[in-house]
UniProtKB/TrEMBL annotation:
Record-linked PANTHER family: BIS(5'-NUCLEOSYL)-TETRAPHOSPHATASE [SYMMETRICAL], METALLOPHOSPHOESTERASE
Record GO biological process: RNA decapping
Protein name in the entry: Metallophosphoesterase
GO MF annotations in UniProt: bis(5'-nucleosyl)-tetraphosphatase (symmetrical) activity; phosphatase activity
Pfam families: Metallophos
Species lineage: Bacteria, Pseudomonadati, Pseudomonadota, Gammaproteobacteria, Pseudomonadales
Boundaries of every Calcineurin-like phosphoesterase domain copy: 17-190
Recorded GO CC terms: cytoplasm
Length: 231
């Protein structure tokens, strides 16, 4: 099963990307209303981590059902899948990271969420007039987008999947090297006060789920469109 979803250019409306949501869909909806987001024409691409920490985690499946909303699997969705599949977890750490809402669900409900989360791609690729834009949760484990996409066509090596969903290395070492084959790569995972660009990698988790704001990035212009994010 391929772990990447590709999207042709949007000729009717605009495409946007958003950082980690973490169960704060009401705040996200307010941010979308503020930019006149039109679900009949526009599309929203998410870096994942739809759940944990916030009060509206149960809405995640409703959002994933929307034809205009597309998300990669973040590490928090992966944790839910691991739990249901019987993999090892540090449950104290999982609860501390906001996973209590999931652990407290019935087994049937856990399975319903985990089944949908397991089908989320690891990567998105969106065509724009100026070239393709990629979306991952944390970082790209390969210097070349084509090399990474080749891994996504089959069983992804566990170390590469872990890097894709958990790595903070690029920000920690201020790595400016671009990912070749992409106009831009959009990621989240690490909360920042303001969006940051390293090479052609945009880090857009600006804590909309916490005390920050949601950064909404227009993919056609690679510009932040919500006023709070530009301040």
């Amino acid at each position: 099963m391929s772990r990447i979803e590709r999207f042709t250019i949007n000729t009717r409306g605009r495409d946007y990307a958003v950082g980690d949501i973490h169960g704060h869909f009401q705040r996200l909806q307010a941010a979308l209303l503020a930019i006149d987001f039109n679900p009949a024409l526009d599309r929203l691409f998410s870096v994942g981590d739809l759940v944990d920490r916030g009060p509206q985690c149960l809405q995640a499946l409703d959002w994933l059902d929307q034809p205009w909303f597309h998300a990669v699997q973040g590490n928090h969705e992966a944790l839910a899948v691991t739990h249901v599949s019987g993999g090892w977890l540090d449950y104290a750490q999982y609860r501390a990271a906001g996973g209590g809402w999931f652990l407290d669900l019935s087994e049937r409900e856990q399975s319903r969420f985990a089944e949908r989360f397991a089908r989320m791609p690891l990567a998105l690729e969106i065509e724009t007039a100026d070239g393709p834009v990629g979306v991952l949760h944390a970082d790209c484990p390969c210097a070349s987008w084509a090399e990474w996409c080749a891994h996504l066509q089959g069983e992804v090596p566990p170390k590469l999947e872990e890097f894709c969903q958990w790595s903070r290395r690029r920000l920690q070492v201020d790595d400016q090297r671009p990912i070749t084959g992409l106009r831009a790569l959009i990621v989240g995972h690490t909360p920042l006060q303001q969006a940051k660009v390293l090479g052609n990698i945009w880090h857009i988790d600006t804590g909309g789920w916490s005390r920050g704001h949601f950064s909404l990035l227009a993919l056609d212009t690679l510009s932040l469109v919500n006023a709070t994010a530009r301040e």
